[in-house]
Amino acid sequence: MLDLGLLLTLYPPMNRGAMNTPEPAIRISGLQKSYKDLHVLKGVDFDVARGSIFALLGSNGAGKTTVVRILSTLLKADAGTAAVNGFDVAAEPGKVRESISLTGQFAAVDPILTGRENLVMIAKLRQVERPKEVADGLLERFGLTEAGGRRVATYSGGMRRRLDIAMSLIGDPPVIFLDEPTTGLDPEARIEVWGIVQNLADNGTTVLLTTQYLDEAEKLADRIAILHQGVIIVNGTLAELRALLPSATVEYVERQPSLEEVFLALVGDKTPNGKQDKEERS
Ligand SMILES: Nc1ncnc2c1ncn2[C@@H]1O[C@H](COP(=O)(O)OP(=O)(O)OP(=O)(O)O)[C@@H](O)[C@H]1O
Ligand SMILES: [Mg+2]
């Protein structure tokens, strides 16, 4: 069932008002959050520069969605501060909601409506001019023109995901949160989404992205942070993260470590594709 309250929360009219201020688009300091006894965020700090793509990585349950929910005012932090587009999430949640859109792990697509009806509904909530034209433009941009007249219940997972991202672009929000935007997409659709995200950032939109696909972070992100055991354990460019591990020399050809190798070295005991296990056994 469609949750109208959630929709109104997620899709108020847009406010690009504070865009020209020099402060970062997102600023988080000392953020803490517990669910009963589970202390998920233990003091999370990071900034995201305007117009940049920031990837937040972490194992399942690390707290990535929790950070995104706090930043999008769906959840209150226990301690610390967070500001989005210059507005404090606790003091000015309405202003924050006017500055953002959110897509990903909690898609707000209504399966009973057609793709076009979903888009028109959000365009009306966001009070954009000519909602039908906006909807048709987005359907075309996302390769959904043919499917636009069909109920979303009949869409494939990839089509739904594309529609969800299209909905989040309505009204041109200055800050976009993409929580695992390409999970479940086929390789072609993922590349398509990457192009869209890159294009957003090129046009000045700030993107905070969470992902389990480390190649996605490698490909897209200006900065990458790893959330582990409640804190950010590293935050840097891909080159800075790679420099944390010595590059391996294989047959006299120097090879840079992949982000996956850096991630696993910092976070866990697992080795990519279980390579170590095989080597140990042989
Ligand atoms: N509403 C809730 N009530 C209780 N525990 C919760 C709630 N939401 C999340 N958690 C727990 O908090 C931890 C962090 O969850 P969160 O969804 O933020 O992780 P995540 O990094 O997004 O994980 P994933 O990669 O699986 O999406 C998990 O252990 C989760 O079970
Ligand atoms: Mg999550």
Topology:
Layout: H1 4-10, E1 26-35, E2 38-48, E3 53-57, H2 64-71, E4 79-84, E5 87-88, H3 93-97, E6 100-104, H4 115-125, H5 131-141, H6 157-169, E7 175-179, H7 187-202, E8 206-210, H8 214-220, E9 223-228, E10 231-236, H9 238-242, E11 248-250, E12 253-255, H10 259-267, H11 275-281
Parallel strand pairs: 3-8, 3-9, 6-7, 7-8
Antiparallel strand pairs: 1-2, 1-4, 4-5, 9-10, 11-12
The structure holds adenosine-5'-triphosphate and magnesium ion.
DSSP E strands, number: 12
CATH superfamily of the largest domain: P-loop containing nucleotide triphosphate hydrolases
Q: Which word captures the global form? A: globular
Q: Compute the CA-based radius of gyration.
A: 20 Å
The second-level CATH architecture of the largest domain is 3-Layer(aba) Sandwich
The proportion of strand residues reads 15-25%
Structural class: alpha/beta
Q: Helix content range of the residues, please?
A: 25-40%
Strand order of the largest sheet: 6-7-8-3-9-10
CATH top level assignment of the largest domain:
Alpha Beta
Order of helices and strands: HEEEHEEHEHHHEHEHEEHEEHH
Q: What number of domains?
A: 2
Report, as a whole number of angstroms, the end-to-end distance. 54 Å
CATH topology-level name of the largest domain: Rossmann fold
Bound molecules: adenosine-5'-triphosphate, magnesium ion
Q: Count every helix, treating DSSP H or I runs of 4 or more residues as helices.
A: 11
Give average pLDDT, whole number: 86
Indicate the low-confidence ranges by residue numbers.
Answer: 271-282
